[in-house]
Design goal:
The protein is α/β, with parallel strands linked by helices. Helices cover 30% and strands 25% of the residues. The chain contains ten helices and 22 strands. It has a nine-stranded mixed sheet, sandwiched between helices. Strands 11-4-3-15-22-21 form a six-stranded mixed sheet, covered by helices on one side. Helix 3 packs across helix 4 (97-117).
């Protein structure tokens, strides 16, 4: 640990590559407020819910324990992938073709909606799924065939990154920039948003924070990592893990689109300015990565360095960071009323950027008393 820490003095430890230092922090909640709906958690899904509630004419207060997108929503790898955590052919096998197809189409549409909302933050360049073994290559073929069988765009791929498939409908994005843009849009539309205001007690009529309370009619808890701590009722169904990443100084253009490899345990993309953002290796950390800690750890970081070198990248490491995310055994997210008047969404199993936004909008409609245009998870 001492050696890794020594190297870390020259890099931004626990700061994601997405952080540009330009965010103007929001106030703490230091009074008692009344509103129709209180949203707990101002990441991608929570902010999507806030904006949808505003669109439906509801009064909204949103609170965040840290800063906007301080959790995984602003500290992930910047992938916008259609579908849910399972690959498409696995979703068909586990949940049925109709459900898998509906979800996949809805998430493709959601990526388009996200691009319209925050075009500065998103590049629709597609994504690669690359095989690291013969078994995985065969699975990529099954994945490709299932997508094509249901009319979704996908192509076999053989290039510098390896063999696998290209999914043109996916995208890359700056997750922290997008969330901050959404927060600004919500403020301009009349939402009251507060940072540094953790929820201490939650009921359907009141949310208590250290310095204030929100009196409301309903509550939406839009939290991913540590969801089982915020709502202990979900203990046993939800388990939090730590995902780790690093980033480098700019290098010559090598990767045109984000890469998902080794069953999703390795992933990286090259940013428009040439920097490499690389993450994964959670399996190398073993049981130690089933933790709510959000600090990077030595073992996984060293494995990430090895992966970086295997890719032929010798640029200096400039950032190391981690974030807690929640998993379920089924790969399906949590979306339900867990207490009278208290709804929860989260546990996206590591791929919540698109599904989380979609689910935030869907749940917002339910809380507003409006039939969702697509009731995919709450039907």
């Amino acid at each position: 640990m001492a050696g890794w820490r020594a190297k870390s003095y020259a890099v931004a430890v626990s700061t994601p590559v997405w952080e540009d230092g330009n965010w103007q922090t929001l106030p703490r909640l230091e009074e008692n407020l009344e509103t129709e709906i209180c949203v707990v958690g101002l990441g991608g899904s929570g902010l999507a819910a806030v904006l949808e509630l505003l669109r439906l004419g509801r009064k909204v207060v949103g609170i965040e324990a840290g800063t906007v997108a301080a959790g995984a929503a602003g500290r992930n790898g910047g992938f916008l992938l259609a579908g849910i955590a399972r690959f498409y052919h696995q979703s068909v096998a586990e949940h049925g073709r109709d459900f898998a197809k509906s979800i996949y189409q809805a998430t493709l549409d959601q990526i388009s909606r996200m691009m319209a909302e925050t075009p500065q933050a998103i590049r629709r360049v597609g994504s690669l799924r690359i095989a690291a073994s013969e078994d995985e290559l065969q699975d990529c073929t099954a994945h490709l065939q299932a997508l094509r069988a249901d009319g979704f765009a996908a192509e076999p791929y053989d290039g510098p990154e390896g063999q696998g498939l290209l999914i043109p409908g996916d995208a890359a994005f700056n997750p922290l920039l997008r969330c901050r843009m959404l927060a600004q849009q919500a403020l301009e539309a009349g939402a009251r948003l507060f940072e540094d205001s953790p929820a201490l007690q939650i009921s359907g009529q009141e949310v208590e924070t250290p310095r204030g309370r929100v009196h409301c009619q309903r509550v939406l808890v839009a939290v991913d990592g540590r969801l089982e701590q915020v709502l202990p009722e979900l203990e046993g169904r939800v388990r939090t893990a730590r995902l780790q990443m690093l980033a480098t100084a700019p290098v010559k253009a090598r990767f045109a689109r984000p890469v998902y490899r080794r069953w999703g345990y390795d992933y990286w993309q090259q940013l428009p300015d040439g920097r490499i953002a690389l993450g994964g290796m959670r399996d190398a950390g073993g049981e130690a990565e089933w933790t709510t800690l959000d600090e990077p750890g030595e073992n996984v970081q060293l494995h990430l360095e090895q992966l970086l070198h295997q890719l032929g990248i010798q640029a200096p490491i400039t950032h190391r960071w981690a974030a807690p995310v929640a998993y379920t055994l089924t790969g399906l997210p949590i979306a339900q009323e867990v207490r009278p008047g208290v709804w929860a969404i989260g546990a996206y199993s590591g791929t919540g950027n698109v599904v989380g936004a979609l689910l935030g909008q869907e749940t917002a409609a339910v809380l507003a008393g409006v039939k969702p245009s697509r009731a995919l998870f709450l039907a």
